[in-house]
Each structure stands twice: as structure tokens, then as C-alpha cells.
Write a structure and sequence with these properties.
This protein is mostly helical and about 475 residues long. About 70% of the residues lie in helices and about 0% in strands. It has helices at about 15-45, 50-60, 75-100, 105-135, 150-160, 165-190, 195-215, 220-235, 240-250, 265-285, 295-300, 305-330, 340-350, 355-365, 370-395, 400-410, 420-425, 430-455; strands spanning about 10, 60, 70, 335.
Length: about 475
């Protein structure tokens, strides 16, 4: 009996999936660069003579009080603009479930287990440090998140030749990570729920779903409806970003007759630049502005809560994602792509320790009544993310020559038909065409041999 074919872990992507991932990661990379610039600007503003003006702007309130929307600029960025980010995350998750790595339960086991372990282990690291030192265990969720835009901005600088399979694995990890982060926010950081407002928000989501699946089009229909759903979700006490994820998950990702792109793909193409270019950088501008001094940096490594965040991101994430990947591959008998090594998975696992956006958000939610501790935790998120980025960069640079060779093999197109040769070699139709050509050549050789054996010549063949 033939041995069963072992499924490949981090195998080369199909050509359509590779194209989609390349486009998505390109947009995320640009957003990540803007995110880095915004974070640097926030740190400069918070630690220069401009700090008072920065604080006044961040704490300036506006909006209708009667609708519970008299919010500070920082709160508008956190609860309002970040909803756009989670709306795009919802679309990405829906696509992964319908057409991506998560559509096949067997293939989804690896990234899902890696993501779950990559969230559980940092939480355990944080709890172990804070509980043993008498600290506040309420920030356990802070080091559980991965910021895909920030991570890809790092790759844009030090890992330009990273194989597409590793990039796709990181993207899938982040998508699953975002889903669990939203569940954590909805379940553990929701207080004083207003059932009437929540019921009306859910009713608005139902209307959104019915209109969308009946083919109603027009931004002038959905934009006001989305604002109403968001406002009701905010008033209900559930974090308003949940509304963004819910609407993203409702969009149709399949293509119908006469459509070139699905509605989800079309809307994501329109909204992603707004999310990556405006919403997330503005959130970072008002969330990352913490005062940095020798004492504050020292407190990060001596106070249990920020220390738990740093070690959770740097060690917990790495051990969780790598260990989860190895265990899942071991018990599902998935064979690692022969072109890669477990050291590559370890480097990507360390890169997932870049928390930033969602970690900053959870940090604000976890310590609402202790601004000093919240600021220390924010500083810890920045330091932990930076340490994870530098460590991953060192590991990835050591494999740069190997990665460049793999990327060159993936990109080679010697026949100039626009399709990389490696994908043509994997194409069953290509093999059928080649088999037909070889068979025709073999038949011609047999015919010539028969003619020669009969005493004829090559010229005896019919014209």
C-alpha cells in the first residue's frame, strides 16, 4: 500500500492566492510605514515643549452629549476611526473563511492553533509575573495581539525577500488574532450593557445584512446605516469596534454571474486606504504619546504590569506561535515545506510579538482608572514590540540569501507569458500539454525508425 501523501506546512501558495496576498501585504506595508511615522511623531510631541499643546488637543472633547458621543479626540480615534480598521479586519476574516487558508478545516488547524497558543502563552506569562508580584492581573490581554501592519513595515525594511508562504502565514495569524482580540474586547471589557441600545444595534445589523444580500447598492444607503449601528453599539456599552467587525463579516466574498469582483473585495479596495492611511495612524498619534524618561523606562522593567507586557510580547508570543505550529504539525502529520526550516517559523513567531495597535487599545481599556499605569503599559507595548522587531530582524537577515533564492525561483518567467514558470510546472494542463508533445515526438521517432528499417529515407515521409 502506498504511503499517504503528507500535507505541506508553509507550502507554496496557489497563483491566485499568491497574487491576492501580495496585493494585501503591499497595502499593509504602506500602512505600517505610516503607523511607524505616527508613533514616532507621538513620542516626539509628548516629550518636547509641544507636549502641553499635544495633551490639550488629545483631551479636547466634542460631539452631542445627548447621544453619549461627547468624546475626546483620543476617544474618537479609539472608538470611531479604529472601527474602520476592524471593519477591514472583518472583511479579511470573512475572505479567509470563504476562500483563504481557513476555508479548509484541515489546512486551518495549523494557523488557528498557532494563533490560539500565540495568545494564550503571553497571557499566561503576564499572569505569572503580575500574580506572583502582587500586580494588577487585569492587563492579561494586552500582550496577546499582533499588529500585522507594523510587522510588515519591519519586513519592508529587513525582509523584502521573505517567501510568500511565510508572509501568508503571518497574515493568517494576524487575521485569527484580530478575531480573538475582538472577542476578548467584547467579553472582558464590556461594562453596564444597555440592552435596548444593543438590541437596536443588532436590528440595524440585520437590516444591513438583508439590504446587502438582496443586492441593494449605494454608499449613501450603507454609510448612514453604518453610523447609526456604530452609535447604538457605542451607547450599548459594548465596544464600538465590534460593530465594524460584524459589518465586515456580513459582506459577500463570492463572485456572482456578471461580477468581476465580489462586493467584499470591491469595498475593501475602497476602504483599506482609509484604514491604513488615516484611521490607524491617527489612533497611533494619540495613543502612543507617552512620556519617556530614564525613570519611566526603568519602571517598565521593575513594575510587574509593564514587565509582564514586555515579556509576554517578546517571549510569550514567540514560544506560543512557534510551539503551537510545531505541535499542530506534529499531530496532524503535516510536513514542513522542504525549502524552509523551523528556524524560519521561529523568526516569524518572534515577529508576531509586535503588538502595537490592538495592544495599545486593550491597554487603555484594561486600566481606565489608573492613567499612570496605563502610560507605563503603553511604553511597555512600544518597548516589547521594538525588541521583538529587532530580534526577528536579526534572525531573518541570517537567512536572507536563502530567501532571495526562493523568491527568484518563484518569480522566474523564462517564457515571458506572465505566469511564473514554477506555477506552470505545477499546472496539470501544462503537464498534459508536455505529455502530448513528448508523445508526438516519440511517434515521429518510431515512424522514422520504421522507414529506415524498411530501407527508406527521411524523404520518404509524406509532405
Amino acid at each position: 500500500m502506498a504511503a499517504p501523501i503528507r500535507r505541506r506546512f508553509l507550502a507554496r501558495l496557489s497563483l491566485p492566492e499568491r497574487t491576492f496576498v501580495a496585493d494585501a501585504l503591499r497595502a499593509e506595508t504602506v500602512g505600517g510605514v505610516l503607523l511607524l511615522l505616527a508613533a514616532i511623531a507621538a513620542l516626539i510631541l509628548a516629550n518636547t515643549p509641544l507636549s502641553d499643546a499635544y495633551t490639550d488637543l488629545r483631551d479636547f472633547s466634542f460631539g452631542p452629549e445627548s447621544l453619549h458621543l461627547n468624546l475626546t479626540v483620543a476617544e474618537w480615534a479609539k472608538d470611531g476611526l479604529l472601527t474602520i480598521f476592524f471593519f477591514v479586519a472583518g472583511i479579511e476574516l470573512k475572505r479567509e473563511l470563504v476562500a483563504g487558508e481557513l476555508r479548509d478545516p484541515k489546512a486551518a488547524v495549523l494557523p488557528v492553533v498557532a494563533a490560539i497558543c500565540g495568545m494564550a502563552t503571553p497571557a499566561l506569562v503576564y499572569l505569572g509575573i503580575t500574580a506572583g508580584s502582587g500586580g494588577d492581573v487585569g492587563g492579561w490581554a494586552v500582550p496577546t495581539a499582533t499588529d500585522i501592519a507594523f510587522a510588515l513595515a519591519v519586513l519592508a525594511v529587513i525582509g523584502t525577500s521573505l517567501p510568500s508562504a511565510l508572509r501568508a502565514f503571518l497574515l493568517t495569524l494576524a487575521v485569527v488574532d484580530d478575531l480573538f482580540a475582538i472577542l476578548i474586547i467584547a467579553v472582558f471589557f464590556t461594562t453596564d450593557i444597555s440592552l435596548p441600545a444593543l438590541a437596536l444595534s443588532v436590528a440595524g445589523l440585520a437590516v444591513f445584512w438583508v439590504l446587502h444580500h438582496r443586492g441593494v447598492r449605494g454608499w449613501y444607503v450603507y454609510l448612514p446605516l453604518a453610523v447609526v449601528i456604530w452609535g447604538l453599539m457605542h451607547a450599548s456599552g459594548v465596544h464600538a469596534t465590534v460593530a465594524g467587525v460584524a459589518m465586515g463579516l456580513m459582506l459577500r466574498c463570492t463572485v456572482r454571474d456578471g461580477e468581476e469582483h465580489s462586493p467584499a473585495e470591491h469595498i475593501e479596495h475602497r476602504v483599506r486606504p482609509l484604514s491604513a492611511g488615516l484611521a490607524v495612524p491617527l489612533f497611533a498619534l494619540f495613543a502612543a504619546g507617552v512620556s519617556v524618561s530614564g525613570k519611566s523606562l526603568g519602571d517598565v522593567f521593575t513594575t510587574p504590569e509593564p514587565l509582564g507586557v514586555v515579556l509576554g510580547l517578546l517571549i510569550g508570543k514567540t514560544v506560543g506561535v512557534f510551539g503551537g505550529s510545531w505541535l499542530a504539525a506534529r499531530f496532524t502529520k503535516a510536513a514542513l515545506n522542504e525549502d524552509l526550516a523551523w528556524a524560519d517559523v521561529f523568526a516569524v513567531a518572534m515577529l508576531s510579538g509586535i503588538g502595537f495597535t490592538v495592544s495599545l487599545l486593550i491597554g487603555e481599556l484594561a486600566f481606565p482608572d489608573d492613567p499612570v499605569l496605563a502610560a507605563e503599559v503603553k511604553a511597555a507595548v512600544l518597548i516589547g514590540s521594538l525588541m521583538a522587531a529587532v530580534s526577528a530582524a536579526v534572525l531573518l537577515r541570517g537567512r536572507e540569501v536563502r530567501y532571495r533564492k526562493l523568491c527568484e525561483d518563484e518569480e522566474r518567467d523564462e517564457d515571458g507569458d506572465g505566469i511564473p514558470d514554477v506555477y506552470e510546472l505545477d499546472d496539470p494542463e501544462y503537464h498534459l500539454r508536455m505529455a502530448a508533445i513528448l508523445e508526438a515526438k516519440a511517434a515521429e521517432h518510431r515512424r522514422l525508425a520504421e522507414v529506415a528499417a524498411a530501407g527508406g529515407t527521411k524523404d520518404d515521409s509524406p509532405a
